[in-house]
TrEMBL record:
SUPFAM superfamilies: Thioesterase/thiol ester dehydrase-isomerase. Gene3D superfamilies: Hotdog Thioesterase. Signal peptide: none annotated. InterPro entries: FlK, FlK-like_dom, HotDog_dom_sf. This is Putative thioesterase. It holds the Pfam family FlK. Residues 18-119 form the Fluoroacetyl-CoA-specific thioesterase-like domain. Coiled coil: none annotated.
Length: 138
C-alpha cells in the first residue's frame, strides 16, 4: 500500500436514481416505497473503494471491517442519491472514510466506514480454507 499521506484526503463520489426495484418494499426490508438503506450503504462503499483504488498496489484490495452510520431521511422513487467518501485516516492497513449521502441539498445519511487493505489472493485462499473447515465440522 502507498504511504498514508498519499491516501488521506482522497475523495470519490457515486450516484444513482431510485427505481421501484431499489425500494425497501421491493427487496423485503420494510414496507415503505423509499430507497432501501442497504443500497445507501452500498453507494457509500462504492465511493470509498473508488477513492483509493488507484493508490493500492497490484493484487491489493480492501475489505469492510466496520461501519457506524446514521440515517436522516428517505428518498422516494425517482429521487437522485449522491454519495461521497473522503479518506480521513490510515492506521497501518486500516483505512477510515467519512461518507455522506444526499438527495439534492438534504443529508439523508452519514457514516464512518473502516476498510482494511488485504492481499487479494491470500485473503481468498484463507476464506476458502475457513469455509472448507467450517463445512467439515458441521
Amino acid at each position: 500500500m502507498v504511504p498514508a499521506d498519499e491516501l488521506v484526503g482522497a475523495v470519490a463520489f457515486s450516484s444513482m436514481i431510485v427505481r421501484p426495484g431499489d425500494t425497501a418494499v421491493a427487496i423485503g426490508v420494510g414496507d415503505l416505497p423509499v430507497l432501501a438503506n442497504s443500497l445507501i450503504i452500498n453507494a457509500m462503499q462504492s465511493a470509498a473503494i473508488a477513492s483509493i483504488a488507484e493508490h493500492l498496489e497490484n493484487g491489493e484490495t480492501t475489505i469492510e471491517t466496520s461501519i457506524a452510520l446514521e440515517f436522516h431521511g428517505g428518498i422516494a422513487i425517482g429521487g437522485e442519491l449522491r454519495t461521497s467518501a473522503n479518506c480521513t485516516e490510515v492506521n497501518g492497513r486500516e483505512i477510515t472514510f467519512i461518507c455522506e449521502a444526499y438527495e439534492g441539498e438534504r443529508l439523508v445519511a452519514s457514516a464512518v466506514i473502516k476498510r482494511t487493505a488485504v492481499e487479494r489472493v491470500s485473503f481468498l485462499a484463507r476464506t476458502a480454507a475457513q469455509s472448507i473447515k467450517s463445512s467439515t465440522t458441521s
